[in-house]
Amino acid sequence: MKYFRFIPYLILFITFQLIQLILNVVFLPFEFNIEIFLILLVLFGTLFNSEKIIFPIFLTGIFYDLFFSTNFVGVYSSLYIFILLFVSYANEKFSKSYFQKVLIFFLSYLIYNFLNLIEYYSSFFTFNSIVNFSISFLIFISLEKIINR
Amino acid sequence: MQKQNIGFIRKYIVYILFLFLSLLIGVVDFFSNSFISNYFPDKLEVNLNFIEKINFSNLEFTDSFYSKQKIVSENIRLKQEVLDLRQLEVKNQELEAKLNSFEIFISKTENLEFKFLNSNLIFINSSGEFLISGGKSSSLETGDIVLNEDGFVVGYLGEVFNDYSILETFSSVRFSLQAMDKKENIFLLTSNGNTLNISSLGKLNSDEIVSLIYTDVSFGNIGKFPIINLAPFQQTVTGEKILISIPISEHFTSHTNFYIPLNK
To answer: Rounded to the nearest 5°, which phi and psi values hold at A70?
Structure first.
């Protein structure tokens, strides 16, 4: 039984991944988006900082690469693990001021959108990206406060 | 303190090991010409029809002897009937919309000898690629062209799964398509995400301004499907080549209808 403890996490991550895909379509006419999977990753990296979630995150990335992207398998799982690694390290090493939270979330946002950043570098930093980042960050901060209460 | 440190180090070792494992899989996939990427989607059948409609019509209350129970069961039956009728109405509206879309498409396209598969947007992934309905189960293949309601090419299928496919549109940096015009000049269409760049391949057969360009022989139907009308755009002639840059403005919604020619 011990070896199957990762399954609820896996279901949670894949569900959020699918919700993210649906949200991308829902918000298409408004030209902005909410990165809920990124929010979940940063929340897990910040609050539930544990190596137990690494295997489900790895599998979620592989699942996403296999079925929802044209990239090579392992690209998104690397990005997700790198975000977790970065967030958990930054939270352990640095103080938790509001500015640092913004910075950590911003860098995570850049890592999450790394592929878009290298492909569309000239048009990545637009007003829409700022709106996307701000909305996602506000949701992250609100959720963090609710969970910490 | 030392125990805490060991836990700290162990956690990061696990993170880094999995990071390397992911990168290793990526490298293997890269050097094996996407063997892993294609292996599982080919073997597994992932159906996206996960929104199953629950059917309550099998519920029967034959064992009820009391009138109250009969009323309750009758009430449930009627409620179910209302639900069924609502579902039928929604389905009817969907079919009506599809019919209208087909009528518009038929009125604008000249290729009525083809069979077309109607497709819709399902998801958009993190890279901004469109996942549309229709896949191997509908005899679609990688590289099949995708048309809009006006009969113009909007892209081609980058990857095909069992019942859905990934559409490469003009806004994809990987987009690359060969085209030709009526005077048999050949063009290469590439994109940087914001601009569609069209350059002629080889010497132009005529000095006239290039207007409509079509799909070429690579799709098995030479000059059948129009891609874009180049006449309104500035055409720069350098030597014997022509270069045209067009800003990309795609407006897709969840209700956008796509058409994929089936008989190649």
So the answer is: -95, 5
Tell me if B90 is assigned to some domain: no
Give the pLDDT confidence of B60-92 residue by residue, as tens digits. Answer: 444 445 566 777 778 888 888 888 888 888 888
Binary contact (B37, A73; C-beta < 8 A):
yes
Tell me whether residue A114 is exposed, middle or buried, using C-beta atoms within 10 angstroms of its C-beta: 0 to 12, 13 to 18, 19 or more. middle
Among candidates A21, A29, A78 on the partner chain, residue whose Cβ is nearest the Cβ of B125: A21
Instruction: List the end-to-end C-alpha distance of chain B, in Å, as a whole number.
Output: 69
CB B158 within 8 A of CB B166: yes
- Beta strands B176-180 and B226-229 are unpaired
CA distance A98 to chain B (A): 25
- Our CA-based measurement puts residue A61 at a distance from the nearest CA of chain B, in whole angstroms, of 9
> Which of B15, B46, B192 lies at the smallest CB-CB distance from A67?
B46
Q: Helix, strand or coil for residue A145?
A: helix
Distance CA A136, CA A27 (A): 13
> Which whole-number Å values give the CA distances from B215 to B112, B225, B236, B250, in the listed order?
16, 6, 22, 19
On whether any CB of chain A is under 8 Å from the CB of B128, the answer is yes
Residue B19 to residue B33: CA distance in whole angstroms: 21
Alpha-carbon gap: B183 to the closest alpha carbon of chain A (Å) = 34
Model ipTM value = 0.81
Question: What is the number of domains present in chain B?
Answer: 2
Enter the pTM of the model: 0.72
d(CA B112, CA B135): 22
Rg, Å, chain A Cα set: 15
Check CB contact under 8 Å for B126 and A58.
no
The DSSP H or E segment spanning B243 is strand B241-247
pLDDT 10s digits, B132-190: 988 888 888 888 889 888 888 888 898 888 888 999 888 888 888 888 888 888 888 88
Q: Which domain holds residue B20?
A: 2-43
Q: Which residues of B touch A61 (CB under 8 A)?
A: 22
* Coil, helix or strand at residue B150: coil
Instruction: Please give the Cα distance from B58 to B52 (Å, whole number).
Output: 16
